[in-house]
Amino acid sequence: MSYRDISNVPTTGASWQTGQGDKLNSSGVAASEKMAEMDAGRMRQHKAKIDSVAHSRGVDPALLAGIVSRESRAGNQLQNGWGDHGKAWGLMQVDVTPNGGRHTPRGGWDSEEHISQAADILVDSVKTIERKFPHWSKEEQLKGGIAAYNMGAGNVHDHNVDAHTTGGDYSNDVVARAQWYKKQGY
Predict the structure, then answer these.
(1) CATH architecture of structural domain 13-183
(2) pLDDT tens-digit series, residues 66-90
(3) pTM of the predicted structure, to 2 decimals
(4) Catalytic option among 5, 37, 51, 84
């Protein structure tokens, strides 16, 4: 996946609903960037692990940071490592529900092992979207894979990849946050 540059993926950023989670009076890329910036201090403590996993998996570290920011606000929204009312584990919120991801959590909530597990899920999601939509551009496939990370590849039906994602903006928000982190040296 390293041949895709997250900077080249078009994005509309966060929805109004997502921005309201932080009481922002904005939406779009500006809201996503503000939320990423709010997480930046906490994110720094995870940067070495994110960089290590990104390098070993061929994933842009900024993309992993964008997901960490969206999923757990760099750990700030977790209770003993759990989020989503006990349905998801760790910084990148690996879904453990029987009707969802059915994953078994690996490692501590902020461990390199956890980030590796989540990165593998992301890579599998992108590869599934590549097979499902072989005529899409690499950037469209990446964005579809990010949406699939949130809701499963079976729910990606067309170019409106966020139609069924959390907040109706998951991939757009993650991409905008990732682009912000890329500018910060991830």
Answers:
(1) Orthogonal Bundle (1.10)
(2) 999 999 999 999 999 999 999 999 9
(3) 0.97
(4) 84
